[in-house]
Design a protein that fits this description.
The complex is a heterodimer of chains A (148) and B (368). Chain A is an alpha/beta fold and 148 residues long. Chain A is 22% helix and 29% strand. A three-stranded antiparallel β-sheet of chain B has the order 1-2-3. Chain B has a three-stranded antiparallel β-sheet with strand order 6-7-8. A two-stranded antiparallel ribbon of chain B has the order 4-5.
């Protein structure tokens, strides 16, 4: 059984390593500061005992006040998982750092989020629309995009 | 004399039989060798995730059939499990067992199509796929018996199934399960050590273990590269922990290994179905909880299953209303395309078709 690591437990250790990186925690997730996302993700990937080598899924949710990007991380070696969350308050021009450098699996998924939700991933090698065509107006997965 | 040469851009697809749907590869060629490839998709994008936000939870079940339409039962199951986790709906034992039987039958059907069309792409034109469609037909007949449909079943509901299996189902299933291993032996006899198949697939399109993990590959792609990661064992859901089965793995991560993993998985699925039939309890197939217009408590949930193509996950966010606030689908076919470039660059056009065929994608799930 994949063990869901408690967010509170993990955050306590991480806060010492990278001060100011954690904004909030819950039972199975940690909410991370935008600026420290990259260093924290690199730490999670390589730290012995954690070794989250597998990024299983990325998704984004539009909460009107902010966008939340959710990373599902798993360690194939230790069979445990954690949910990483990042918030983005800028609605006009939202941007967060890309994790492609750490997990290539993020490549297409970040492109998809850019396409449908309009969040720009800085450092992504190919940040353009993926399922919709170039020139499409708007980002349909946003809550204020009406489809009828 | 020095000849002036330049790279040539070749579009493969979107309407080409070897691209398994409306997939397009823009390949840059140097002679016959591919030096760059860019996957282009979206021709089948229907905005299913957006449609989910405009429907009630129950109304979305038929749409999940249209994701990976070669494995509709598995999609039904994954979505129902996510909603059940979100709204804490119990599922009766018998329903769980029948779900497992359906999911494993669907795995066999999906792998038959995957292997059949892969061999078709290798140049074994029509003969293997004809045999494999013959067996798939029997599975489709079984599904028609329980749900009335042959492709998009819409069979599962929150808290169980839409109806119990009819009386004639179990004898028919037993007959199929007894026949299937012999059919698999027949395929192996024809193909396993076939000289031409070995020449076309051994060592072609190697995906290393590290790349596979780094690119978030799942399913037979990951296992073909030698990583024994199967959610049915790693994170057992439903009643999978009660069955004995092995995880077939490849050694080198080439196209041949992926083909072998799929064939061996069919044998394991037969094993699971046999055990599930022996243990199948009697009882209701649907819980008493009313599910027509459920309003799950506000919250979020990520639930995943091992679909024939890999990890199929549903991320649902509820705001307490009758429709999901957000429904994200982690489609294995989509993410398995991440490593396409690594596998194809450096090979010839004919090999690219074989390598692409060994990924086994369904466009309904890639574009969503």
């Amino acid at each position: 059984m994949t063990r869901a690591i408690s967010g509170e437990e993990l955050a306590a250790g991480l806060e010492q390593r990278i001060p100011g990186s954690i904004i909030g925690t819950s039972k199975e997730s940690i909410l991370v500061n935008n600026q420290s996302l990259l260093s924290l993700a690199a730490h999670l990937k390589t730290e012995p005992g954690l070794e989250f080598d597998f990024l299983s899924s990325i998704t984004a949710v539009d909460y009107y006040d902010y966008f939340e990007v959710i990373y599902q991380l798993t360690s194939l070696e230790h069979n445990h998982s954690i949910v990483l969350k990042v918030r983005c308050h800028d609605r006009e021009n939202p941007a967060i750092p890309s994790l492609v450098g750490l997990w290539r699996g993020a490549e297409l998924q970040e492109q998809e989020i850019f396409d449908l939700m309009g969040i720009r991933f800085e450092g992504h090698p190919n940040m353009k629309r993926i399922v919709l065509w170039e020139g499409f107006q708007g980002h349909p997965q946003r809550r204020d995009f009406l489809s009828w | 004399m020095v000849m002036k040469t330049e790279p040539l851009v070749l579009n493969i697809g979107p309407a080409h039989p070897s691209t398994h749907g409306v997939f397009r590869m823009r390949a840059t060629l140097d002679g016959e060798v591919i030096i760059d490839v860019e996957p282009i998709f979206g021709y089948l994008h229907r905005g299913i995730e957006k449609l989910a936000e405009e429907r009630t939870y129950q109304q979305f079940i038929p749409l999940t059939d249209r994701l990976d339409y070669v494995s509709a039962m598995g999609n039904n199951m994954a979505y129902c499990m996510a909603v059940e986790k979100l709204a804490a709906i119990p599922v009766p034992e018998r329903a769980e067992y029948i779900r497992v039987i359906m999911a494993e039958l669907q795995r066999i059907a999906s792998h038959l199509i995957a292997v059949g069309s892969f061999l078709n792409d290798c140049g074994a034109f029509m003969t293997p796929i004809l045999y494999m469609v013959r067996e798939r037909e029997k599975i489709v007949d079984l599904f028609e018996m329980v749900s009335g449909q042959r492709l998009t079943y819409n069979y599962m509901r929150f808290g169980g199934l839409s109806q119990d299996v009819p009386d004639e189902f179990l004898p028919a299933l037993r007959k199929f399960i007894d026949q299937m291993p012999r059919y698999l032996d027949e395929y192996d006899q024809l193909l396993k050590e076939n000289e031409i198949l070995l020449a076309r697939t051994k060592g072609v399109g190697i995906l290393s273990k590290e790349t596979a993990i780094n690119c978030s590959m799942t399913g037979p792609m990951l296992r073909g590269s030698g990583v024994p990661w199967d959610l049915r064992k790693a994170d057992p859901y439903s009643v999978y922990s009660r069955f004995e089965f092995d995880i077939p793995c490849g050694a080198r991560g080439d196209s041949y290994d992926r083909y072998r993993v799929r064939v061996e998985e069919m044998r394991q699925s037969v094993r699971i179905i046999r055990q599930a039939m022996e243990q199948l309890p009697v009882g209701p197939v649907r819980s008493k909880t009313p599910v027509m217009l459920i309003r799950p408590p506000a919250g979020e949930v990520y639930s995943h299953v091992e679909s024939p193509k890999g990890e199929l996950g549903f991320y649902l966010v509820s705001d307490g209303s009758i429709a999901p606030y957000r429904c994200h689908i982690r489609g294995p076919s989509f993410i398995n395309l991440t490593a396409l470039r690594e596998m194809i660059v450096g090979w010839k056009v004919a090999d690219a078709i074989v390598i692409f065929g060994s990924i086994d994608i369904v466009m309904g799930e890639v574009d969503r």
